């Protein structure tokens, strides 16, 4: 191909896409908007920028250099947001430690990521103390506290965050460097083996932020985050950059509310008192919000919520609609930074009543800008977009992790044939709308046919006495696999397996499912096992049916 390339002027500035550029606009447009941390502290964007500079100076004084990795063990806080910017803007790498992993797994990730310094909240001191002997590369710890004074600890502490911050200078000349430098890393847990390290560059995060801002703000079909909104995450900041939204919110200069530890009543109270208009979270967190005591006496109408991580059920969506919540679904994964698609309502769909919109709002949506997304068969052949044919989602876009840290073989498997393989099975209809059917490992083959665990969960959830449901496949000598369901009833409700099987019979009679899809076992429980980021843990559930 004969493309045309013109040599730039010798002194033309080659502008690198660095995270520091995301800080330019927020304090210009809305310098008086606030960053709020629970009931602990609030300050404006001018102060935020100064604190980012102070943190960079503090870390420099403590010996952190470009290329070093700094770990954070904290709840969602203003401190975490400051680290989102200061650490990578210095040329260092920010490691978002998953605080819900086991101590052994946390130690593994800190060692594997080559962390040299750890910022640790007092709530996690005991964990850090228990593993410090296993962390030979960690030179010291900075204590994070929400109260006056620090708890005593056996850790090699270098000081308390606020005290060190106030001693540091309020100006910092953040350098230019290669936009392909690694900015962040964190670890994703699979069903087997040790956690895998994914990593993202400055260029990837800036492009994801710019595209995310456009996706969430420009279109009438998905108006979620705009300049006058108030943002509060309900996805942990250690989990895929809280879906990248803190970067978007900071670039826009919107008011941001960070809740600390997630407690449903507290989240609803912050929503009410701080005027929150946009949040995001996995379905299990949203369900806890709806079931909280504060929600019973709070008007939730107008709250815009984006959910992802696992498929929302129609029953949850209908509950949202009844409370006046504007509900959208997003799709992505740890390896994709994460945003790949969101619910998009076209003009005709926006004219429908909210209850009529819900079947569309729970679908995986359409790919966002710059995302090349396909469904393929096991040989990598692209499949038709007819709404029926199912295949694995593969994807290309500028912000995908390029591999797994120190694990090249697993990276090659992830990027087989030059496409990132998600492990998700989906169909795509003629309008380009994606509908996730299942994870490849969760699809149930019974009686010679494929059964979607997600579809079964959706149908079971439509019973008015079901609060939560999870469906898994269990090996069966005769049928290959049989579906089994775990149910949490609505508070005060009495329900049994036979009632639910009768409920599913109507869907057999209508042709939506075959008779083999009715679960062989139905277990009534008070709680369904969850992963460290709030997703249903089907690996654990399978062991409970063995």
Please outline what is shown here:
The chain is an alpha/beta fold and 546 residues long. The chain has a domain at 446-545: 2-Layer Sandwich (GMP Synthetase, Chain A, domain 3), CATH 3.30.300.
Walk me through the structure.
The model has no long low-confidence stretch (mean pLDDT 92). Strand 8 and strand 9 (196-201) form a beta hairpin. The protein has a domain at 446-545: GMP Synthetase, Chain A, domain 3. The protein starts with 22 loop residues before the first helix and ends with a helix. It contains 18 helices and 25 strands. The strands form 6 sheets. A 7-stranded mixed β-sheet has the order 7-6-5-3-4-8-9, with helices on both faces. It has a 5-stranded mixed β-sheet with strand order 12-13-14-15-16. It has 546 residues and is an alpha/beta fold.
Give the SSE layout.
Blueprint: H1 23-29, E1 34-37, E2 41-44, H2 45-61, E3 69-73, H3 78-89, E4 93-96, H4 103-112, E5 115-121, H5 125-131, E6 140-144, E7 157-160, H6 161-167, E8 182-188, E9 196-201, H7 202-217, E10 230-231, H8 245-252, E11 255-258, H9 264-274, E12 278-281, H10 283-291, H11 293-296, E13 304-307, H12 314-322, E14 326-332, E15 339-342, H13 347-350, H14 354-361, E16 366-367, E17 372-376, E18 391-396, H15 408-414, E19 420-428, E20 434-439, E21 444-446, E22 449-451, H16 453-461, E23 466-476, E24 480-489, H17 497-509, E25 521-524, H18 538-545
Parallel strand pairs: 1-11, 3-4, 3-5, 4-8, 5-6, 6-7, 10-11, 12-13, 13-14, 24-25
Antiparallel strand pairs: 1-2, 8-9, 14-15, 15-16, 17-18, 18-19, 19-20, 21-22, 23-24
Helix pairs in contact: 1-8, 2-3, 2-6, 4-5, 7-8, 9-10, 12-14
